[in-house]
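User: For a reading group we're discussing how well predicted structures match intuition. Take Response regulatory domain-containing protein. Before you show the prediction, I'll give you the sequence so everyone sees exactly what went in.
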Amino acid sequence: MAVDAEAQFHVLAVDDSLMDRKLIERLLKTSSSFQVTTVDSGSKALQVLGLKEEHQTSTSALSPQHNEIEVNLVITDYCMPGMTGYDLLKKIKESSSLKDIPVVIMSSENVPSRINRCLEGGAEEFFLKPVQLSDMRRLGPHILKGKHKEQQQLHQEENSNNNNMSNKRKVMDEEILSESTRLRFSSSSLNLI
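Assistant: Thanks. Here is the predicted 3D structure of Response regulatory domain-containing protein, as structure tokens, for the group to look at:
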């Protein structure tokens, strides 16, 4: 039953190296039967996630689009041309619709200040390359945590919608009640005259 549940989990792997993308994809599929999408840049990752990067430098240059694919975890290389893994992490965490997706960063360089910066910026893990099967097995709790947050948001939205419907109904009921009271008052006033 756990395998069936894991099969629905979708990992987005981002790396400019074709060999590393293939290795990560194979490890993810071998370790937990995850659905894997691979891209070679941070900007392509943003497209898959449903964010369109416009040619501006401000963070407001990201506009949400229709998200075709539900991604449960992003694993990205740190050093990539154009947009680094850290830049991708920041854009994901700044997005209200994506901020709860767990992000894992990997690098072949063991630079403590880089590792700390990524972890403080919201990364769940920092893997050193070459990534191994044991690393992939550590992703499960992060994916489940991301899934749990998504489910909580759905429940909150449902409750909010239910509350809105209750409030609208209450307002309508009050309007009907006050209208009928006015009518009764008017008709009783007429009866008195």
